[in-house]
Design goal:
Blueprint (H helix, E strand, L loop, with lengths): L9 E2 L5 E3 L10 E3 L1 E6 L2 E7 L3 E3 L4 E2 L4 E3 L3 E2 L4 E2 L4 E2 L7 E4 L4 E5 L1
Parallel strand pairs: 1-3, 2-6, 3-8, 6-9, 7-10, 8-11, 10-12
Antiparallel strand pairs: 4-5, 12-13
Length: 105
């Protein structure tokens, strides 16, 4: 097995997305841009792009979201439903909203 993408995944291609070797993904996850807060007239501000990197051997779980500018280090597991807002150090399990490291792998 090499890298593969699960069914119904969403990739926002307004910025570079890199997915490493042996990094299979779950279903229906999203890698996308992050809107900035707006003002009182419109709370959704401009979308800000940034590269997303998913390292070698990492797994992005079903319905997880990785936001713009984030690097998921090699060998990480991003749990189902997690929202990754900051970089993930290698070889960790990340869960929650926002995602946080809960253990070493």
């Amino acid at each position: 097995m090499d890298t593969w993408v699960g069914h119904r995944c969403y990739f926002d291609t307004r910025a570079r997305i890199e997915i490493g070797r042996f990094a299979p993904s779950g279903r229906s996850h999203a890698l996308h841009l992050d809107p900035r807060p707006g003002n009182h007239e419109c709370r959704v501000g401009p979308f800000v792009g940034g590269p997303i990197v998913v390292g070698d051997g990492s797994w992005i779980g079903t319905r997880a979201t990785v936001l713009a500018g984030v690097t998921v280090g090699d060998g990480c597991v991003i749990a189902a439903g997690a929202v990754v807002t900051d970089d993930c150090e290698p070889d960790g399990l990340y869960v929650g909203v926002p995602a946080r490291r809960v253990r070493d792998l």
